[in-house]
Structure formats: structure tokens, C-alpha cells
Known about the structure:
Blueprint lengths: L1 H27 L2 H8 L1 H4 L22 H6 L2 H10 L15 H21 L3 H17 L1 H4 L7 H6 L10 H6 L2 H10 L15 H15 L4 H11 L6 H5 L6 H5 L11 H11 L1 H4 L23 H6 L2 H10 L15 H17 L7 H12 L1
Amino acid sequence: MGMKRHxxxxxxxxxxxxxxxxxxSVSASTGESIYETHCISCHGVNGDGKGGSSGLTPQPRDFxxxxxxxxxxxxxxxxxxxKGRKNSAMIAWESRLSREELNKVADxxxxxxxxxxxxxxxxxxxxxxxxxxxxxxxxxxVCHGDFGETGVWxxxxxxxxxxxxxxDRTKGELSRKRMVDSITYGRxxxxxxxxxxxxxxxxxxxxxxxxxxxxxxLPPEAVLAEKAILEGSKRDESSTTGLxxxxxxxxMSQPFADGIFGDPNEGREIFxxxxxxxxxxxxxxxxxxxxxxxxxxxxFISTDSKRALNRPKIYTAVHGGLPGSVMPAxxxxxxxxxxxxxxxxxxxxxIRGDMPGVSEEDLSKVxxxxxN
Length: 372
């Protein structure tokens, strides 16, 4: 009996020691040490997504980027770390790390990387985003969800689920104007009610800024350029936001990057060979395939296109494609020079309208080359 009691006491001490050691080691672990152990291989020493892991698609999150400053807060970092991120290499750590460890590493990532990125944002833009986030949470999150992925209750109980702002389809379909109009006037036949009598235009604009930047993840320069054009701004945005968009006249005269010059005559042939079937010979988005495509191909001769599409924007869309649409990345087929050529043709023939577009003769020439 004495031997058994002695054994049980000794065993109890060992268990207590191990429990104390394990709890103590977790408590002693810092967010930095957890990050170095589990996160650094993908996200890098500096949190810039340049760890030792290569070939990941999509690339690991760069916590120091302006986009992260728009998108991330501590809660979102904690949830992403805990549950993982769909369609990425980011796994769920909830089965590997304790709640305390998850909180510590989320705090470390936010305070070390994201908070610095937020502090680097121009003050006017930071204030706009803070205001937009507060207005979104008060008026929109109950249906669209805290992170724009649609609220759980509304997704399950509404006949038509509210818009999920994070999908590629949404990014392809929703222009700034459509979003402003939807908030102001509501959506007929949908649960989306009008807020024009409750919110000022400045408040609606702040909500749209927040959604497009923080939830949809659209490029800041493009969002601010679109905003300036829609609101009829003539001031130099770079003086108030620190970003690169200037007044519309200067914006529309921007050249291609890296000193590339496009040949519009060469570009016309590329357009006929690859683009007119969707965008039409007139550039009006009424090509032979347009009827079967949703969202519809870009109408280059519309007022909105003539205000928003400069050479770099057209080049970027042709080169990299447009998520949420059938517009492919032509860089897989065309050289950078060929992309510049067709972008220059579209800009000159349809946006600016200072050179001939596509003629029947141009169509015949391309058909003959294909037949030969």
C-alpha cells in the first residue's frame, strides 16, 4: 500500500511538473517567437511576404503593403490565423496553437507590421477609411458581414443573399457609380434599401471607399482615380492623398511604363485578330460573342471609358486580364510590345478617337492571313 501511495505521489508530481512546464512555456512564448517558428518561412522576416517558400499561388500576404493597411485589423488577422484562408496556402492553426498563442501572434503581426503600414497612409485617406469603416459597421455589416463576405444570418434566411464583396465576380461587376447609386437609391426587387435620406453624399462616398479598398482589395490608385472622375474633381489628388493620380487631363496623357511606345497600326491587326469578337469593330462592346458574355465586354466609346481609361490602365487590363470577367491575361500570348501596340490602338481609335478604327478591309486582311 505504501509503495502504491509513493508511486501515485511521484506520478502526480511528474504530471504537475509537465503541466506547469507546458503552461509556463506557452505563457513565456512571445508573439515574435511564435511568428519566427511558424510564419516566417512564408511571410518573411520583415512581414513582406518574402519568406523562403517560393512558388506559392497566391503569394503570401505582405503585411507591410498599403493594401494590408486598408484590409487588415487585429480581428481579421486572428480569424485568418485561426481558420485559415480558402484558396491559399494559409492553413488553419487552431489545432496547432492555443488560443493564447493565436492572440499573441495576431497582436505581434498587427503591431509590428500592419500598424506601421497604417501609420504611413496619408492622413486624409486614413481619416476617410476610419469614417467609412464605422459607417459600414453601423449600416451595412449586418447584411454584408464584417468582412464583406455576406452575413451568416442573411445568407441563410434571405431569398437572395446580399452581395459578397470579396469575390472576383463582384470586383468585375461593381463600378464605383453603381455602388454609390445602390446605396443612395437602393436596389429594386432586393432587400437593399435606399440610404440617400439617411446618409450624406460624403458618408456614402466614405463607405464606398472603405468597401472598394478594404473589402474588395482594389488598387488604391485606381479607386482614387475613379472617385475623382466620378465626383468631377479637378484638383491634383497627389497633393491631398500622397498617391499618384493627377488631374484628369494629366491622367489621360500618361505614357506607358518603362519607356514603351505602342504602334497603333500594328495594334489594329492584333485587335482584329483577338479582340473585336468581344469588343466589336467599333469598340462598343457589341462583338459577335458579347451576347453570351456576362459581365459584358468593355464599351470603349462610352463616356465612362473615355474618362477612366488611359494608356497604362488599358495596358494593365490587356496584360493581366480582369478578375471576374472573361478578359484573359494576354501576356501569356502576346509580348509586352504587342500589348502596348494593341493598347495604343484602343486608346487612339476609341478613347481619344483621333485615328481610324477597324474597317471591312482590315477584317478581310486578317481573314486572308488566317486562311493562308
